[in-house]
Each structure stands twice: as structure tokens, then as C-alpha cells.
Design a protein that fits this description.
The complex is a heterotrimer of chains A (about 200), B (about 280) and C (about 130). With about 280 residues, chain B is α/β, with parallel strands linked by helices. Chain B contains six helices and eleven strands. In chain C, strands 3-6-7-8-9 form a five-stranded antiparallel sheet, with no helix packed on it. A three-stranded antiparallel sheet of chain C has the order 5-4-10, with no helix packed on it. Chain C has a two-stranded antiparallel sheet with strand order 1-2. Chains B and C meet through strand 3, strand 6, helix 6 and strand 11 of B and strand 2, helix 1, strand 3 and helix 2 of C.
């Protein structure tokens, strides 16, 4: 640990939430990125699931929002050590989107507008664990937080909840995404503190 | 090699207390055309103790820090400041060095950002004797190398972008260098200026022009407003003087000013920019 | 092909930002969320000087990088740097492709430079 600066707290509440190891609570919603914020209108937005055989399932904005929606309230854990509790979202469950997709794949590579990618096992997108989220705190998801829509998979570190999501590729072999190929952990479980390769 | 060779000011005036002058600015062993030598010791986090704090403007404070073992620095360089809370939480911000090298004494000027995580602590809460950690000095591009650079210098600063160019001005003064400097300093109002008294006092061969974008003093000859290409022509150096140009401030200011300079005929290769970004809170 | 710095050419002079303010102000004070917006979310490569100092024995912000995607060249200090926590992404100011990535973990730093064909690093003449 570095030299302690007396009286320095950062701006952190102490609400008594249970934190994953190494995390600190915040009431902010910091914006971190790997590139410029893509500007994608709802008119041009599409989301595509591509199976390992090349079969594509595509939804435009109207089609996505016509699907049954959910309003998950979840905790967010970022690899930069901040955690934000009780965030309110609205979106479509991946269970809904994957319902009619035939696949034998075990892995997923998520693609975003702007080129960002992240990978995770397909099973981590199922059984109520993931959404394509378009509304945050009752408002349209702002662009800097990933709008028009982002993946939300809160049981993993937030870098897996790809902002500006535009598709998911189902793969029979795992393929590391943007940060996973540069040192971040392949899986990213905050409760086992899996931040970096080798953790 | 003596690490204090990096402190040109130290060599010239003996201000790098605790280090020895090892020769002249022309000593080829001490410096190259780019001044880039392998360091004699790895950069590490230095403990820095707050010795003094001064008000620069309603929202800015200058911190005077004592940093034992400080190796000196070039004007334009910066440090990363690390703060660690008692529960182990830590965060970092970058700040430009405001002062000329002066032994173990280092000055930073911090602008308080409302709701900022770090700047309110540095500007207000930190008490004399409290500690932070500094990594540096770092930066080898946005620097002025006295003794090597002999061309006139044009400094264009917006808001808190004045900090690193002030270090250049102070080093020039400390070393008694005669290279002509022109400073254009853009701020909203006279109260927002950092180092106002020092800049008004001036120095031989330093011409300073304040550009007010919101409220100017009643006797101003220049109409109030943002930096224009004409300002750079009127108060800057002409391109054929081939000045070294340093532009610093928020991204929008830097991009605009640099574009104006190129439009006025300055060689982009002579323009060095430093943008202050979102980590400045 | 030398980079014609698009952001330094005379056609990019239409920024709406007031040069006299350190950032957009509300109530006369600077708010941290406004600091982010106004700066476009990125800094320049000068911000990498500290993190890279842990890896390189010399300063590399003055090194000239050649973008592997568009071929333009310029100092690392002029890359557009996006801070993403432990992960830094530095992009070509001309074509926005990633030139360099740096992740600082507790015991390892990952440095990916496949977006740069080469770095020309100023060094002293061998003595």
C-alpha cells in the first residue's frame, strides 16, 4: 500500500453493502472507455446473433422493444475497483433473444459499434443473467454509458457488459476480446477477484 | 552520471540543492539534442509533504511540496500524484510542475473541480505536513530545453494550461536566458488568472498578453472574446521567426489554437500541445 | 507518409469551446462531469508518460510512432488516449485505430503495440 494521505477519502458512501474483494462503493457512474463514443441512432441500430454455422438472427429497434421487457435492479462491479449498488435498468433478456437460436456453441464473442469486443461463456448469458439494456434509471441509456443499448451481465466485471452492443457471435472455441487479449481475465468473476490474466 | 543533470536550472544557478554541478550546458555527456538519456535510477513514487499552500485564483491553489530526493525536472514536465486512503483505496491524477527546479521543493497549481475526488482534497483539505506520492518528473515532448533551444518561444495557454508554460517562464528567468518569449494567456476574467502578479511584473524579453473571453478590465484595448487568429498575429511571433510553440489547456482550446496557428502559417512540426483531460478532477 | 495532423490543420478551427474557461461552467464552478464531456473523453499521449515510465528506461512520449493502419506518423504525445481504468488505449489521431494499449496489473504490465509499425525513440549518441 502506498503512503496514506491523511484525511483523503475519495467520495465514497459507507452504506454497508457487501462488496466483492478489493472493491469500493461509489454513488457516481464513472465513464471509462477505450475509444470515442459511437453515435448510433435508433433508426440505424440493429442487433444480430450469429451462430457458429453462420446463421444470423437480427432485430432492429422496433423489433427488440416489441419483445417482452424486464426491469432488473442489479449491482455493478468495475475492474477499476468501484461498485455501484441497486442500479435500475430496462431491457430484453438474452433468454428471450436466444430462445429460437439453434446452437451447439459454448462461447460468445460480443461485438460493439466502434469495434470493442468481449468474450464470455454462452451459459453466462442465460438463465436470467444477462440483458440487452436500453433504459437506465428510467431514462434512455445515454451514449456515454453505452446507449442506445448495451449488454448487461452484472455477475461479471463491468467490462463484460459491452456498451454500444451490436451483436453476439456464438463460437465453439473461446476467443479473447479487446481487454482479454491485453491482460484482463478471461472470465472476470468479481467475487473471486478475477481482474487480470493469472488471477 | 549525476541525475541532477536533468535540472538545467540547477546546474546554472546552483539551485538543485544537494546535487553537484557537473559541467556546462554544452557537455555532450550530459545532454543530447533531444535530452533523452537513460535515467540513472528508476522512476519511483516519491513521498511529498505539503510545506505551503497559496491562493492563485478563487478556484486554484499552488501547493509547495517538499520531495526528498527530487532529481530536478525540465519545464513542461508533469507528475502523477497518488493518494491512498486509510482503507487502501487509491487514485491518481496528473499535474504539471509549475515551478523551476529548486532542490527538493516542487510546486503544483491545482484547480478545484466541484465534486472532484482529488482536487478539493489537495486544494483545501490537505494540511501542512500531510503526504501524497509523486511519480516523476515525466514527459519528454512538451518540454522546453533551455541552453539547447535558442529560437524565440510562443506560449499559448488557456485556463489552467498556464501551469506548465509558467514553469518555462520561471526557468528562463532563473537562468537569466535572453531567448525572447511571448505569452498569450486566455482566461474568462482577470480574477481567473494564475500567477497574475508575477506575470504583470513581467521579465526582460517576456511579453505577456491577457485575452479575456468573458469580462475584461475597462481599459482593455482588445474586445472581449475567445482567442482568434488575429490575436496570434498581433501578439504572437510571425511564422518566419520559426518559434517553438507550446499550446496548453483544455482539448477544445488546444485544438482551436493549434488550428489557428497552422492557418496563420506556422509549421505544425514546431507546435507542441498538451491537453488537459478528464482526469484533472 | 507523414501525418498531416488533421487536428492541427486550419480547417478544424470551429470548436465551440470557450478558450477562456478550463471547462464548461455551471453556477460558476467546474463540475467533474462537465470536465469529461468538454474534453471529448480523451487526453493526449503526454498522459502516458508516467505509466510508460515504469516500462521504458527513457521517455517515449517524444518517440515517433507509425500507425499500422493508416501509416501516418507522429509523436506518441499526440495520440488520443482513452483512460479506461487499469487499461489505457492510445489511438491514431488521424484514423482512430488503436496504436498502443497498456494494462497495468498488480504484478504485470501488458503492453500491446501491434497497432504501431515502429517507434522511433530519440536516444543519445553512443559514447
Amino acid at each position: 500500500m502506498g503512503i496514506v494521505s491523511r484525511g483523503f477519502h475519495g467520495r465514497r458512501p459507507t452504506d454497508g453493502h457487501k462488496l466483492p474483494p478489493g472493491q469500493y462503493e461509489t454513488s457516481d457512474f464513472p465513464v471509462l472507455s477505450a475509444g470515442p463514443t459511437p453515435r448510433v441512432s435508433r433508426d440505424e441500430w440493429t442487433f444480430t446473433i450469429t451462430t457458429e454455422t453462420g446463421q444470423k438472427h437480427t432485430w432492429d429497434w422496433a423489433q427488440l422493444t416489441a419483445l417482452p421487457g424486464q426491469t432488473p435492479t442489479v449491482d455493478l462491479h468495475c475492474v477499476t475497483k468501484w461498485s455501484k449498488f441497486g442500479t435500475h435498468w430496462e431491457g430484453v433478456s438474452l433468454d428471450e433473444l436466444l430462445a429460437d437460436v439453434e446452437t451447439a456453441a459454448d462461447f460468445a464473442l460480443v461485438h460493439s459499434y466502434g469495434g470493442y469486443t468481449t468474450n464470455l461463456p454462452l451459459e453466462d448469458l442465460l438463465d436470467g443473467k444477462a440483458w440487452i439494456a436500453h433504459t437506465y434509471d428510467g431514462e434512455d441509456l445515454p451514449a456515454e454509458h453505452g446507449g442506445p443499448a448495451r449488454l448487461l451481465v452484472p455477475h461479471l466485471y463491468l467490462w463484460k457488459s459491452a456498451k454500444w452492443v451490436r451483436g453476439i457471435e456464438l463460437l465453439t472455441e473461446d476467443e479473447p476480446g479487446f481487454w482479454e487479449s491485453a491482460g484482463y481475465h478471461d472470465y472476470g468473476d468479481p467475487w473471486r477477484e478475477q481482474r487480470y490474466q493469472g488471477d | 552520471m549525476n541525475a541532477s543533470d536533468d535540472a538545467a536550472a540547477g546546474r546554472g544557478t546552483g539551485k538543485a540543492a544537494g546535487s553537484e554541478a557537473t559541467g556546462t550546458a554544452d557537455d555532450p555527456g550530459a545532454r543530447t539534442a533531444t535530452g533523452n538519456r537513460p535515467r540513472t535510477r528508476p522512476l519511483r513514487w516519491h513521498a511529498a509533504e505539503l510545506a505551503e499552500r497559496r491562493t492563485e485564483s478563487p478556484s486554484a491553489r499552488t501547493l509547495v511540496l517538499r520531495v526528498p530526493g527530487w532529481p530536478g525536472h525540465l519545464p513542461g514536465q508533469h507528475v502523477d500524484v497518488r493518494l491512498t486512503a486509510e482503507d487502501g483505496y487509491s487514485t491518481q491524477r496528473s499535474y504539471s510542475l509549475a515551478s523551476a527546479p529548486d532542490g527538493d521543493r516542487v510546486e503544483l497549481t491545482v484547480q478545484r473541480v466541484e465534486d472532484g475526488e482529488v482536487s478539493p482534497y489537495l486544494a483545501d483539505d490537505m494540511a501542512l505536513g500531510d503526504l501524497v506520492e509523486l511519480r516523476g518528473p515525466v514527459g519528454g515532448w512538451f518540454v522546453w530545453r533551455p541552453g539547447q533551444q535558442t529560437e524565440p518561444v510562443l506560449l499559448v495557454a488557456g485556463g489552467s494550461g498556464i501551469v506548465p508554460v509558467m514553469a518555462m517562464i520561471r526557468v528562463r528567468t532563473d537562468l537569466g536566458i535572453r531567448v525572447p518569449f511571448r505569452l498569450l494567456y486566455s482566461v474568462r476574467t482577470p480574477d481567473d488568472r494564475f500567477y497574475a502578479q508575477e506575470l504583470e511584473r513581467g521579465a526582460p524579453g517576456l511579453d505577456t498578453t491577457f485575452l479575456y473571453s468573458r469580462t475584461a478590465p475597462p481599459d482593455s484595448s482588445r474586445p472581449t472574446g475567445r482567442l482568434t487568429p488575429q490575436d496570434l498575429v498581433a501578439w504572437g511571433w510571425p511564422p518566419d521567426f520559426e518559434p517553438a510553440v507550446y499550446v496548453c489547456g483544455p482539448t477544445g482550446f488546444v485544438e482551436t489554437a493549434a488550428a489557428f496557428l497552422v492557418g496563420n502559417g506556422h509549421d505544425p512540426g514546431r507546435i507542441r500541445t498538451e491537453r488537459f483531460g478528464p482526469t484533472g478532477g | 507518409m507523414t501525418r498531416t495532423p488533421h487536428h492541427l490543420d486550419s480547417t478544424s478551427a470551429n470548436s465551440p469551446v470557450s478558450p477562456g474557461s478550463a471547462s464548461a461552467r455551471r453556477d460558476g464552478v467546474i463540475h467533474e462531469d462537465e470536465v469529461h464531456y468538454e474534453n471529448g473523453g480523451y487526453e493526449d499521449g503526454n498522459a502516458l508518460a508516467g505509466p510508460l515510465s515504469e516500462i521504458f528506461a527513457v521517455d517515449v512520449t517524444a518517440a515517433v510512432a507509425r500507425c499500422a493502419h493508416c501509416g501516418s506518423t507522429g509523436p506518441v504525445a499526440m495520440l488520443h488516449v482513452y483512460p479506461g481504468g487499469p487499461g489505457w488505449t492510445a489511438r491514431c489521431p488521424d484514423c482512430t485505430h488503436v496504436v498502443l494499449r497498456l494494462v497495468r496489473g498488480p504484478q504485470t504490465a501488458w503492453l500491446d503495440m501491434h497497432g504501431a509499425v515502429s517507434l522511433a525513440i530519440p536516444l543519445p549518441s553512443p559514447s
